[in-house]
Amino acid sequence: MKKKFLRNILFLVFINVLVKPFYLFGIDRGIQNTLPPGDYGIFATLFGFTFLFQILNDFGLQGFNNRQVAQHRHMLGKYFGDFLTLKGFLGLLYSFFVFLIGWWTGYLMAYPVLLGGIVLNQCLASLLLFLRSNISGLGRYRADSILSVTDRLVLIVLLGVMLFIPSGRKFINLYIFVGAQTIALVIACIIAYILLRPFVRPVRIRLNPALLVVILRKSYPYALVVFLMTLYTRIDSVMIEQMLPEGWLEVDRYASAYRLLDASNMIGFLFASLLLPMFSRQISKGENPGELASFSAGILLSGAITLAVTVYFFRTPIMNALYVDGNAYSGDILGWLMFSFIGMCGTYIYGTLLTANGRLMPMNGVFLVSVFINVGLNMWLIPKNGALGAAQATCVTQLFVFVAQLFLAIEMLSLQFKGGLILRLSIVAFLVVISGLSLNAYTELQWLIKGGIVLLSGVLGAMTTGIIDLRGIKDMLIRNRMDA
Known about the structure:
This protein is 85% helix and 0% strand. By secondary structure, the chain is mainly alpha-helical. Helix 4 crosses helix 10 (209-243) and helix 15 (361-385) runs antiparallel to helix 16 (387-413).
């Protein structure tokens, strides 16, 4: 299983590193720099607002379906039409509820077309994730990897032309931005369905109330996971906008820093999407997933620690280089958000493992506590520190969730989180911190060169401590080539 994981994660990372950073920093950042100050903050707030109600849009179907298909692949063709019908009804319910709350908060009256477009895109994105959960559940990981970047590729083409041709920039606005996302998601959904077509019966819209109730009853723990995670990860931008006098501008600054966290999270999300069906199959066969969990945790956490510390040392130059209004304040926001990345990566491993195990209520208890922690910290810190306070609240919350999920996984699955891994990760952290402090104190090198050296020190530390075993990786790949 380690060999299969390694082979597919390398392909996943390769294809995503080619596409998603270019989209985030070439297209998405370009859109924010082109729009008037505060406009991207409007989009970010509305996006965060619509994301809060994703429980109605998905109701745990993606996680439940991925686990079920991975364990019982023959069931896909039989029940695909029922799941798709339920997905459509949930999308309508979600849209109605968002518009109702949007009318109550004033968002619908102020931005009716923009809110409608974002709601449509949320429904399409949820549909795409559902279709991809079937594809990855079938073990077609490379097809799922390609689908994970398809919509971004389309957006690069559609928006790239407007951004990189000077005369096209004058046509860029939030409506064009949201409309391009709609086109990209529709194309990706069509391709996903074409890939699934050989494995499913012709889709017929049919309503089987008894079956739908059974599906909802089994998926509701997954829905609660989605709902609670959404609350403590996406409520920050809405609270910033509501609690501060210049809310749109503060959300704009927060979103500019959050973009780097989004780019970093790409790797963690890829690990989780690949690990969920693998963990599920191991557990269904009675195998112990501990070895795969420790192997993937070592790689992901060492990378997260290295990246977070490096970005923290050079946070202000990074924001100055990326944004026309970058400054030390937005750099501090970035620094706190990147430390939250360490906690997120732990969640991508151990939260995914708990999800694959299917016993979600203890994990939902952790998420419920996390919501109270996050909202409480936001209410305290945002009035004092602005968007920086939201970043601080995010960091504390994410680290708490990681530690709590780690202890749950150890208790529920009898995992052995070896002290040796903690020691190796500590050595990596020590080397990276010492490298950053020394370079800043004793050299006058350009910050990009310093940052590269600090990153390299983390990689060398991971290799020296055995977290990254190049010889083992080489042997795995050679055996895989011989097996093929």
